[in-house]
Structures
1.
Amino acid sequence: MRWALPILLAFAVAPACPQEELTTASLAKSDLIVVGTLYQDFKFPWFDGWNERGHIQVERTLKGDIWNNRAVPFAWERDFRQGWCLTRPDWRGAVGKTGIWLLKKQGDAYRAPDLFGGFLDRPKYLDQVVGFLTRGDK
């Protein structure tokens, strides 16, 4: 029972929103890497929480091929409980923001390949991502 308190405390102080982090592993498991802006199209309740759908308006493709499609479908789920995203990222904070998106194809839409990764600050990470992809550091 003593171990439960430190674990609960760690979850309580852990970040409760998507985190930006760049690893070569994240780049490697991404099917598509784009610079773009996330827009929310609709959401609906389901057994597992809010199912949200949107699209990323693409400015530039860094990895992958989207042909002439400049809007990439993006899907995510979040818990019904307000502010609780220890099990799922809450992408509402990224809606309307432009950044670098690391995406994995899943069904008809793309999702973030990691639980809390997938969105990077463009000015901070663009040169680093382009460098990794150019050198083939995947």
2.
Amino acid sequence: MRIKSELLWGDSIRNPVKIYDLLLNGKLPYGYYLLLCTADKRLEFVPSWMQNNKYLLSRECMVFGIARGKKEAYEMICHILRQIYVEHTYDSVSEYVGKVLEEAVC
């Protein structure tokens, strides 16, 4: 599992630098959710307690966002999906993240 240097942040996260450092050290507290783009260009989100899961670590996926709480994670996912499938602004999750963060994701 790779972690982007620039991430999408949930609105309720007050100190992104501290949270980013905790994520890099594998110590992100409970209550946070990671937004992932997988190798097959799928969008997933997982609770922070799974960040050290052997399955996730062995997969080719990239963390591109962090949300605080399940509700905020759902809202971020809904916003991304609305941009892709309803408003047709982007063609895929990887294109959305690539344009928003100005860097290729997966």
3.
Amino acid sequence: MFTSTGIIRSAGANQKPGWYFLECDEEVGKYYHWLYSRAGFHWKSCMNGVHVSFLAGEKDEKIVSLEEMESYLGKEIEFSYDNIIWTNTRAFWMPVLSSQLDRIRVELGLNPRFLYHVTLGNVKYLENI
């Protein structure tokens, strides 16, 4: 596994409430896109760029408010990732482990996930390349 860091951010006002993610290094995404494009796989960056969602609004046990997240926003978090890219033909991601994210979820009254993923991109609005 490889190690990287991300910064905790909140989703934009035009997105569903209660979504929080790690903003990851875009260069990691560019590298894997370059590498996998050699095999014919192409994707575009997502709305939140290369990221790890760790609070998913209505998909979690509760929706975490911005006030509850205030002390976490902007914090740098370490995570480990596997460099094998998974796809469902619409999105591309790599498995992620982060005990720090699990700890934050527990502090907020949610269950830990134990496994996350770094989203590299998707094929939404992708025109022929």
4.
Amino acid sequence: MNINASINFPSGSKLTLVENFFSKELADKINALFKLPGDQWTEDAVFAHQPGRLSYNNKHSTRDAIDAYAVIMQDTISQAIETKVSYIDHSLWLDLPGYRIAPHKDSEGYPKIAVQVYMGDPELVWEMLGFCLYTEDRRALFEAHYRINSGYIFLHPHKINHGLNHHIAPQFVRNSVYMRYGAE
């Protein structure tokens, strides 16, 4: 994992932008999961208020590999955000054309640390599908580009408005691995 930048906020939140998060071998296996047939993906009930996000909830050896890797990365992530972390779980998200995430703050306390890594086919990537931070009055402040095997580590996502500033265009999808960590 390479760290590109870190931003500390007065609220106590910290955003760390990363690239090459997963090894190439694991990234290739994860991308293969996103090519599984649509009937293996289900609407994510947590996001029912904003339809268009599907989750892969089946057991799979690649999901076990993601869990193992996420545990191995605990010390690296702890150093990056200067907070001791412990891995909780992960989700695989496939966001469909038309999907958008309005500015919001996560529920307080869960997760304390969010790690989202964008995956997918480099030929089907539009950089404007990345993470956006917003001001308190919900104006776009900063957008991180959507790049394969890149993303962010976000300490205290319940303290800052964030979301997806653009609707996903018809020819694109947004694939990501979302990992949750607790703070010790």
